[in-house]
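Supplementary material to the annual report.
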Amino acid sequence: MQVSMSINGRSVTAEVEPRTLLVHFLREDQGLTGTHIGCETSYCGACTVLVDGKTVKSCTMLAVQADGSSITTVEGLASNGELHPVQEGFWERHGLQCGYCTPGMIMSAVGLLEENQSPDEAEIRHAIEGNLCRCTGYHNIVRAIEYAAAKIRGEEPAPPDWEHEEVTA
Amino acid sequence: MTTTTSVLGGSIRRREDPALVQGRGRYVDDIQLTGMLHVAFVRSPYAHARITSIDTSPAAGMEGVHAVYTADDVRHLGPLLAQVPVGKLRPLLADGVVKHAGEAVAMVVADTRYLARDAADAVVVDYEPLPAVVDLKEAVSDTHKVHEDLESNTIVTWEGGPWGNDEGIAESKQAIAAAKERDDVVVVSQEMVNQRLIPTAIEPRAVAADWHPGYDRFDVYSSTQVPHALAGAIAKTFGLASNAVRVVAPEVGGGFGAKLNVYNDEILVCFASKELGRPVKYTETRRESPNSTIQGRGWIGTATITGTRDGEVLGYELHAICDMGAYSQNFTVAIPFLGVFVGSGQYKFPIHMKLDCVHTNTMTTDAYRGAGRPEAIYYIERILDAYAAEIGMDPAEVRRKNYIPSSEFPGAMAPIGFAMDTGEYEKNLDAALRHFGWSELLAERDRARQEGRHVGVGLTSYVEVCGFGPSALVDLGFSWTTYGLPSAFNGSGLVRVNPDGTATVIIGTGPSGQGHQTTWAQIVSDQLGIPTDRIRVIHGDTGESPMGIGTFGSRSAAVDGAATYQAASEVKEKASRIAAHLLEASEADIRFENGGAHVAGSP
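Predicted assembly:
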């Protein structure tokens, strides 16, 4: 079947098998390997992308279902060499280790901040509850999203957690 | 605020992050090679069954299917090599009988991922189910055997007291037995399950092999913590020199010990690539992963403390059955052995541990997060709490009372038979209790309980055997000798200063989230004064790097990082001589900072 969509602002028309998952279409047909596959069952969220501005787990959506829509993947966030505030936040606040869940985590955060620029911690944790991370324990991810929210609001982000007093014997 | 003037130990932004946050990291499944074929496995739905027939023809006849392999095709290459080959080793593909659910029975190679899956579903396998052993106590009883040709399901028993010292073990047992005879002691005993865990790195394992006919060598990309071990295993399996196999571990999406292994799919993908003369890739699906990647833990054991009513422990016993799964892989039986090493913790009382390692009809267990050590620590720490509750003493005080005193260091002998170099356990305990507000926490707990809320406060203390550098461990099998690469678990690092004043650092280990790009840049920057952004770190590529044992057991920065530090120091020493000559100054006055060598005081 033929599908047409806009991916990161670029118009794409392609032939796909009807059963092709959106994530495979993005990764293997379009070469956008930043969107990762962690579970194929929509538990882990590594494959999260924005479809018409809404966060979607692309491992459980068919490419044909995305026909006519506008898609943003993690590769579409940075512009002119400038990181998106969420990407910057993950870097500044050590919101990642192995980096595999990171693109999906970042897309969920972008989706949240497009709706709500002043989320509290509970709202942030709720927004990323569909994204699993095995490395970080989530703490720094929350701090990273708080950093991005402050940046988007034009405010100075809070200093990092690790600027604390040393424990001495 | 913690501040440091040194780039080593200071907090800098990670060097690998700009690529990773932009989705530009390169993981194995991202790699597409020209002409690449894809693999899907036919896996057993039974925990134990005889294979009565396999009909591969419906799959083999499909357009776009290049091969369907079964045990008959790969028997000559197996079984899968294991570094500690105790127990039954895994056949590359199930040979006449399956021993655990998810065991690979046939391998399909096809043009696309989807087609490979379709073809795997078209393979018809008939099974005759056999009794499966999944309960550890049943396994130990040998009522049903996992492997008919083994004498027992129990493949090895590890024992301590003083490890490897039968006399010492007998003395420990006697001391504990004598303590139990005293009339002023309590004996607290509890059976505890340390449940199996499924490691579940977010990135499923993936491997791509590319055989180059004529050149007769492999390029292999694998999501592994141990690229050199894998290169050795592939070379040995296919009768190649180790330098005819290049294994690259690119970005690895988490390991947790599960990727500290050599897997049958890694060997099979190489086999298919060599047979077909095409690159071949296999990416594990999440549904396969629990039974195609090793699991961790899986112990049931009874821990017993014998001690006085005033908190003096006179003996600790642990008898556990440890689940090895159906086949032994890389370190399988060695994992509980690591538990023996930490079994006596930092305490001074006699111990006796007996760990029976048994096969069951389940997926193999091996290294997972702490690997044997958390299991052993759990038993001793949990039973100390039960003992503290029994005698009505603060669990912190029970521990304090039984620690090896700092006066015995250096050279304190742990009851398990290891000499320990340093330790100030009481002081550390005091710092922890003060930092967390132990007495306030206990008061809060008591208040909550009065209000009918169930609140608990936990405390544990442990010392860990880790780092795994050159040491006596090598003689116990912690090496890559089975993979044809004998080594003393040494570290390595190659530091090259380029004509433009940048540096390239090449290391044999690689990250699965640890941040090697950053840490190694800091190590070398600290020595040579080259800014971290002018230092490139190349990791996890056996074709480029000196031998690296792998990233596991808290060893990579400790051992390979230390080696790289030494390498950078040697570069510095040599550069100092040259700089002193060129700058007409004394070597002692040469300083390395801001990317160059200067005479002290005149940068």
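The beta strands of chain A are 2-7, 10-15, 48-51, 54-57, 70-72.
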